[in-house]
Amino acid sequence: MSARDEILARIRTATAGVSAPNSAIPAGSSPEDVVGLFAERVADYRATVVRCTPRTLRARLTAALPEGRVVVPDGLSVRLPDAVVDDGLSPAELDACAAVVTDATVGIAETGTIVLDHGPGQGRRAITLVPDVHVCIVRADQVVADVPDAMPRLDPAKPLTWISGPSATSDIELDRVEGVHGPRTLIVLLVG
Q: Which of 40, 57, 61, 59 is nearest to 49 (CA)?
């Protein structure tokens, strides 16, 4: 028996007779319910959620940005005239940026998770990890109920970054420290 088979056998034994947890999203929920749960769960992770319409997106985005240099990936869905388009900026150049703005691939309501596949509008992983503030644009039609609903929208051949709130870690005494492994602040612009 391989190690994989042994692990799977242990999981089957441990979960025998255990029913699956009820989804936080009742069957037949409307898309608005799913988007509302996504906003609630993202906020639970200490992220800021700003609801807006396509018409108010640019104004909300401008208001959400801190003072300083902003980096954006090539292909971002919103034009930011003063932003620096990442063309392979060095870690030091990225560290000098106050914020990054990206689009998302999918938002998962049940877990409050945003997934980036680093395609157009999302850029390379480094730009989402180095600046202190990450502003992520998620459109209502990108929000799905749960992880199984997200999987068909994702390409397993692409690098995927799953984001659930701002970067945080705790030390041995459980003191929470934010911004150690990525942005200290996550702002989600939820469009729709």
A: 40
Q: Which of 167, 86, 76, 184 is nearest to 133 (CA)?
A: 184
DSSP string, 11-55: HHHHHTTPPPPPPSS-TT--HHHHHHHHHHHHHHTT-EEEEE-TT
Q: Report if residue 11 sits inside a domain.
A: no
Kindly state whether residue 101 falls inside one of the protein's structural domains.
yes
Counted domains in the chain? 1
Does residue 14 sit within a domain? no
Residue range 88-99, pLDDT digits in tens: 999 999 999 999
Q: What is the pLDDT of residues 136-159, one digit of tens each?
A: 999 999 999 999 999 999 999 999
